[in-house]
Write a structure and sequence with these properties.
Layout: E1 13-17, E2 23-28, E3 37-39, E4 42-44, H1 46-61, E5 72-76, E6 79-85, E7 98-103, H2 109-126, H3 133-138, H4 140-150, E8 151-152, E9 155-156, H5 161-171, H6 181-189, H7 203-222
Antiparallel strand pairs: 1-2, 1-7, 3-4, 5-6, 6-7, 8-9
Length: 224
């Protein structure tokens, strides 16, 4: 008799947003917001539909600061959104960036909270505790790698923050990071905020530069 593997947590989207709700990085999975919509004779693109969803999300979470170990929960368009981060004037958080997990209907809020807390912890490790917009944009390649280490096709792979951060930093040393030519353009632009370009570097080169920069920053912090 074949034993079925235990059910793994699934998410519809993972978003990394700045304090104003702008998407710095993120991925949508499955059929969630995969197609555009027609409204009053106008066809909205997939990106327009997603931007509309993210604006609704921001209206719900604006002004709420969720601790790294105590995710907050809101409901947007019938989906459960759980997030960590979002420092405000009265909080002692490390930055204004929020890590948001969008769960399908029926997914446990406690499970989603555990996922968001784990990824936010990893992000904090990678950013040296400074989870603000500038630090995240300066190390954006590491953030995308973090999402990939955390989740594949909507299936959660790892939730431990320390393990995720270590996997991201070690992944560049494994080699074989160069994407196919047809994928380089996608990797350099997909999910990037407006005005941010992948430049002329390949993802592999950018990752090496980001890793060296991050390790240098951490070393200088330790020496203080």
């Amino acid at each position: 008799m074949t034993t079925l593997p235990p059910l793994l947590p699934k998410v519809d989207a993972i978003l990394v947003l700045d304090g104003d709700g702008n998407r710095l990085a993120g991925k949508y999975y499955g059929e969630f917001l995969k197609k555009g919509e027609a409204e009053e004779g106008k066809i909205s693109s997939v990106e327009e539909v997603r931007s509309s969803f993210e604006r609704q999300l921001q209206s719900k979470i604006q002004g709420i600061a969720a601790r790294a170990d105590a995710a907050e929960v809101v409901t947007v368009m019938g989906r459960t959104a759980v997030f960590c981060g979002g420092a405000n004037a009265n909080s002692g958080g490390g930055g204004d960036v929020r890590v948001v997990h969008i769960g399908p209907s029926g997914e446990s809020e406690l499970v989603l909270a555990h996922l968001a807390e784990g990824m936010y912890d990893a992000l904090s490790h990678l950013m040296g505790g400074a989870t603000d917009r500038t630090m995240v944009l300066d190390n954006l390649e590491l953030v995308f790698l973090l999402i990939d280490e955390h989740c594949d096709g909507g299936i959660i792979l790892e939730t431990d923050g320390s393990k995720l951060a270590s996997a991201v930093l070690l992944r560049d040393d494994e080699g074989g990071m160069e994407p196919e030519p047809s994928q380089q353009g996608m990797a350099g632009t997909q999910g990037l905020p407006a005005g941010v370009s992948g430049g002329d570097m390949t993802i592999g080169q950018a990752l090496r530069q980001a890793r060296e920069q991050l390790l240098g920053n951490l070393g200088s912090r330790d020496g203080m």
